[in-house]
Amino acid sequence: MKVASAADWRENLPFETPVVLAEVVPGEDARCFVCGPESEAIARTEIWAFKHPHPHHHHGLVRFYCGAHVPQVKAPPTAPAATRGGTRPTRSARPAPRVERAAPTKRPLPSDAVRAMCPNCFIEVSAKGLCGVCGTQI
After folding, report:
1. Fewer beta carbons within 10 angstroms: which end of the chain, N or C?
2. pLDDT in tens, 59-113
3. Burial, 65: exposed, middle or buried (Cβ in 10 Å; 0-12, 13-18, 19+)?
4. Is residue 124 part of a domain?
């Protein structure tokens, strides 16, 4: 079975970046996730859509936040400073070589064995080669 992605407005949102909800999708006023469902609905021009990474869904999770509760954008990690004077990088700075591993061999299961079938009834025959339904000798 192939899992296909759905055509959804949330797919086009960038991760960990607040976006004004009115710019992304039209609709009714919405509520802040932190304020809760009992809070008053906020206009779509004043509420933010924020896409969080999700451990089980590669498209992530989108939540709406008011201006007071919108999460801070995480800064991307910075690259280490370049070495000066042409010195060689230390051994730990070099990437480790990839080790190719062979795929584990699959042991055959007893259910994988090909068994004799009756050509008339299409059921498995006994070890004697006799069909238990029609009595045909295989």
Report:
1. N
2. 888 999 998 998 887 766 666 655 555 555 555 566 667 767 776 777 777 777 7
3. buried
4. yes
- Provide the whole-model pTM: 0.50
Range of the domain at 127: 114-138
Sheet with strand 61-65: strands edge to edge: 19-20, 48-52, 61-65
129 Rama class: left (phi>0) / alpha (psi -120 to 50) / beta:
left
Q: Is residue 26 part of a domain?
A: yes
Two tokens at 115?
Answer: 């068994």
Please count the other Cβ atoms lying within 10 Å of the Cβ belonging to residue 89.
Answer: 10
All residues at 6 or more sequence positions from 12 whose CB lies less than 8 Å from its CB, including other chains:
24
Cα–Cα distance for residue pair 18/48, rounded to 1 Å: 6
Domain edge (last residue) among 26, 42, 65: 65
Residue 110 DSSP code: G
